[in-house]
Amino acid sequence: MSLDEEVTLLKSVPLFKGIAPGKLKLLAFISDRVRFSSGEALMEQGAEGDAAFVIIDGTADVVIGGDGDRRVVATLGRNDIVGEIAIIADIPRTATVVARNDIEALMISKANFLKLLREVPEIALEVLRVVGLRLDATLRDMSALRAATKSGG
What we know:
Strand content: 25-35%
Structural class: alpha+beta
Shape: globular
Number of helices: 5
Number of strands: 8
Radius of gyration: 16 Å
C-alpha cells in the first residue's frame, strides 16, 4: 500500500479526523501495518505498553482477569484504538486484547505515539475523549453490577 493510500485510510479513522494531510502522512510513515490471526493476542494484560494499535479491519475482544476468571468486557472493531492507556499512563497493560477474527492494524510505537500527541493536540484531545468514554462505560458497568449484587440478582 502506498503512503497516499495509507493517508486516505487514516482519514477514515475518527481519531484522526480533521488532521492535516501532511501530519497524517507523517503518522503513516512512522507506523507499521501489522496482522493478527484469529485467536492471537495483540497485547497481554500486565505486559509493558510498547505500542498502540488502530484497528483497520477485523474485530478483537478486550479480556480482563486471570486464568480462572477471564471476562470479555468490550469488543473493538474498525477504526478503534487500543493500547494507548498503558502508553499515556506509563502503566502495564490493563487488559488482554485477542483477535476475534483476522485483524489488520496500524501499530504506533510508544515513542512515536507520545511524539504524535505532543505535536498534534487535536489527536491528544480525541484520545482523551476516547479514554473518558471508556471510563464512563466502566463506571456504569460497575454501578449496574453493584446494584444487581445488592438486589440479589
